[in-house]
Amino acid sequence: MRPATFFLAVLPVLLLGACSGPADPFEDTDTTGGADTDIWPATAADYKLHNGTFITTFSFPDVAHDDLCCRDFGDISRDFIKNGTNNADNALAAMDAVLSAASNGKVDLVGPINTAIRVGRYVPLLDHVDIPSTSGNYQLAYFGGAPAEGTTYDIATTGDGEFLLGPEYFDGDSGKPKLLFGSAAVSAGTLTASEGHFEIPLPVLWGRVLLDVQRVQLTADVAIVDGGVTLTNGEMSGFIKVDDWFKAYNQVVNEKCGCAALTSDVYGRGPDGWEEHCLDTPQGTCSGADAVTCGVLLLSSIKDGGICKGMFNAVAAAADLNFDDNDQTYEALSVGMRFSGVQATSTGLFSGDTDTP
Known about the structure:
By secondary structure, this protein is α+β, with helices and mostly antiparallel strands. It has a domain of 223 residues. It is 20% helix and 29% strand. It is built from seven helices and twelve strands. The strands form two sheets. It has a five-stranded mixed beta barrel with strand order 1-2-4-5-12. A two-stranded antiparallel ribbon has the order 10-11. A hairpin with a 2-residue loop joins strand 10 and strand 11. The relative contact order is 0.23.
């Protein structure tokens, strides 16, 4: 899909007010998992997936038809604050449903995520360390990485995929994973895990920048097989900070649109919170493909093919979790996605770029 077609002509329905945010009300949870350091190798280079899973596909629940998934955040959620109800919270799926309806099904948010998986730009991996064969607790770690040489998506989906792990997913130079879930257990063939981190791509430009999903809970049906662990009927829930979404968008713009000669971030923090500085007309020296891409990212008007203002207001309107004393603002978007995964192994560390369109 050409970047200029993504979100085109679908976001005006979400042109609502901007979102303000607190200084930083998020206290990150412990991601050590209470792990015994003796089980980790001395260096990241020595680490190999113990019982690996490659996440092959994601999907959103059909919230338009009351398919509720995957978690109720209780009294910090918009529906409780506004209506006193306790419904499943899923801002990302709700935003996807609005976009799909407005575009007659031509636009969705999960498509770019699965495309990024298929082309090898986004490689979500789990390692089930010392997972018991029947029931009990174990260590669960999240990694990002890249396919090893010879591993295609088709090969990986058969369970024969080999992967390289990103060195940034380790604690310094040690062989201890940085993103361990606070707890993980298997019982009667079902995985439950909580207090973890996950990543999903910002759904523009083929998943060039990853968003951190925090306070993640996972459930899935588990099968321990030769070479790793398969997961079916998986559900993942957590939240993405509005700050992180806007910073990720700025990162994409800064990486792709130096030719636009911007003097400030396109999304910036003002005295009352986040504000957009989208362009009414093109500027700078962008030409050819760069002019198309940067027009999409920077222009305010959907009539000109720009998603800048629409994206800003869509995220602001969808945010549904409140973490401060002001119940008129929402600082995060709840996330609920279904997923499947197959067994996977690793052969070393990744260095380089998977800049595949």
